[in-house]
């Protein structure tokens, strides 16, 4: 399989239309489809996925926005490419066949391949302001409504920046980090239709929150980001001038300076009228649209200015996005379960408090988990491999699935390269999972765990216990009081 199709969804009715379109493709969709349910408190997915002849997996996020939903989706994928589709697009019947062609034709330097998109507008009347705004998607670059990326490229940069809380700028940010302006993201031949979603009267006013995201883009990519992303500058400074005029009128009114108040009010009225006319004239000019444009045109400049100021303050000095690790490696005894020396009895396996819950948090993020442990009892003849594997099976039964168990059977005096603090076990886990060292983190309870991590080129987090030496705690670059607290660090990107 060359790709996985990832569909973030808020449970909109359009999801059914999308799945039906995938079913009727001229070439059968024979790759995994991951539906990422991003509703904060989801019930059942709004369609019965079992009725569709597709390999569908439903993953729930508990909320967090489209960037996080897409990250969880691609981390659950195991294919070379990940193809993102929004839940409100309609793929052409040959979309999947052309998708496979697009990916097969991409050379090694290509990080992503975008599809072509059309927004159908009414033919029997002029388009509304909302419809014209949606139609701008046709000329927008690198939008994730239909976008495929190499999975290893996503992993290398930490995926989508989750500091973008809405479906705005997060796609351009990722494309720029992957070198899209250098030709590393190309346009394919496949095509989707993006119908205009219904919107209420204040939808355009809520869109002004995106002005804050523009300042995150500036902090990350520098003042020339709009040229690099081919993004329009818009009316921000005009909005600032109109808002300043309103403030001037307010000050004049409060200070009882009539001339100042009249000057500010006149400038505000002129600016607002010009803005409203620019939105009204191209549209249908019916009563509802005119009313909507007048109300929102009066409010948008102040809202845009407020969100710009908020974004400039919040994102000043923002660091590059790191994201979550793709792989977490865990020591077994003393980190996951109580340390019973040379344990070969599954009945003596007792998980430490809170460990299952912490591991499940990582699993929900799509982070892969493996166990790496020293089992010198095998080399000393105290236990055998069958007993070690029986204990591992019990650990998995109690704590949930792991992608692998790696253990060193040698005694300390054997001089092997797999006994921690040697990096052999960790390197083998990286090779088997295909994860880069800088996208992995090791969690353990003693210094040899972190020594192995450093030797393997990955981050390490120490979770000290009674057997951890004071010098090991002092030398640890990062430590936590429990596995749950270590997972907190991972989820905050502080690893």
Automatic annotation (TrEMBL):
BP GO annotations: carbohydrate metabolic process
InterPro entries: Glyco_trans_2-like, HAD-like_sf, HAD-SF_hydro_IIIA, HAD_sf, Heptose_bisP_phosphatase, Histidinol-phos, Nucleotide-diphossugar_trans
An example Gene Ontology molecular-function term: phosphatase activity
Main location: cytoplasm
Subcellular localization(s) per the UniProt record: Cytoplasm
Database matches in Pfam families: Glycos_transf_2 (PF00535), Hydrolase_like (PF13242)
One CC-aspect GO term: cytoplasm
Keywords per UniProt: Carbohydrate metabolism, Cytoplasm, Hydrolase, Metal-binding
Residue ranges of domain Glycosyltransferase 2-like in the record: 4-113
Keyword rRNA-binding: no
Recorded family membership: Belongs to the GmhB family.
Name of the protein described by the UniProt record: D,D-heptose 1,7-bisphosphate phosphatase
Organism classification: Bacteria, Bacillati, Actinomycetota, Actinomycetes, Propionibacteriales
């Amino acid at each position: 399989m060359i790709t996985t199709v990832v569909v973030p969804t808020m449970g909109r009715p359009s999801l059914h239309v999308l799945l039906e379109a995938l079913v009727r493709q001229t070439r059968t969709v024979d790759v995994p489809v991951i539906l990422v349910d991003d509703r904060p408190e989801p019930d059942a997915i709004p369609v019965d996925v079992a009725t569709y002849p597709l390999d569908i997996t439903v993953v729930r996020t508990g909320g967090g926005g489209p960037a996080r939903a897409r990250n969880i989706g691609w981390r659950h994928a195991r294919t070379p490419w990940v193809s993102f589709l929004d839940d409100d697009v309609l793929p052409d019947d040959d979309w999947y066949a052309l998708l496979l062609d697009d990916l097969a034709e991409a050379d090694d330097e290509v990080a992503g391949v975008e599809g072509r998109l059309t927004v159908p507008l009414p033919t029997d009347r002029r388009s509304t302001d909302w419809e014209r705004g949606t139609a701008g998607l046709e000329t927008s670059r690198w939008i994730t409504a239909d976008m495929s990326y190499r999975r290893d490229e996503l992993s290398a940069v930490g995926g989508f920046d989750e500091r973008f809380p809405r479906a705005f700028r997060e796609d351009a940010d990722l494309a720029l980090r992957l070198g899209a302006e250098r030709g590393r993201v190309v346009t394919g031949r496949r095509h989707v239709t993006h119908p205009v979603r219904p919107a209420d009267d204040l939808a355009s006013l809520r869109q002004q929150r995106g002005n804050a995201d523009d300042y995150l883009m500036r902090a990350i990519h520098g003042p020339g980001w709009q040229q690099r992303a081919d993004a329009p500058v818009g009316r921000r400074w005009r909005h600032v001038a109109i808002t300043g005029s309103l403030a001037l009128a307010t000050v004049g009114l409060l200070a009882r300076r009539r001339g100042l108040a009249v000057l500010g009010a006149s400038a505000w009225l002129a600016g607002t009228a010009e803005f409203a006319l620019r939105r009204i004239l191209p549209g249908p000019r019916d009563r509802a649209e005119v009313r909507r444009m007048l109300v929102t045109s009066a409010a948008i400049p102040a809202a845009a200015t407020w969100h710009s100021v908020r974004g400039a303050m919040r994102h000043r000095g923002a660091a590059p996005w790191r994201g979550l690790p793709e792989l977490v490696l865990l020591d077994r005894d003393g980190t996951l379960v109580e340390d019973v020396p040379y344990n070969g009895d599954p009945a003596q396996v007792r998980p430490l408090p809170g460990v299952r819950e912490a591991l499940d948090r990582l699993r929900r993020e799509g982070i892969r988990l493996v166990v790496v442990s020293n089992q010198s009892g095998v080399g000393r003849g105290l236990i055998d491999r069958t007993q070690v594997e029986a204990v591992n099976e019990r650990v998995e039964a109690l704590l949930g699935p792991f992608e692998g168990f790696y253990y060193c059977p040698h005694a300390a005096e054997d001089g092997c390269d797999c006994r921690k603090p040697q990096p052999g076990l960790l390197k083998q886990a990286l090779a088997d999972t295909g994860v880069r060292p800088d996208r992995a983190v090791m969690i353990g309870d003693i210094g040899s765990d972190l020594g192995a991590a450093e030797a393997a080129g990955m981050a390490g987090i120490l979770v000290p216990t009674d057997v951890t030496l004071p010098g090991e705690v002092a030398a640890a670059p990062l430590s936590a009081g429990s596995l749950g607290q270590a997972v907190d660090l991972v989820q905050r990107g502080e690893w």
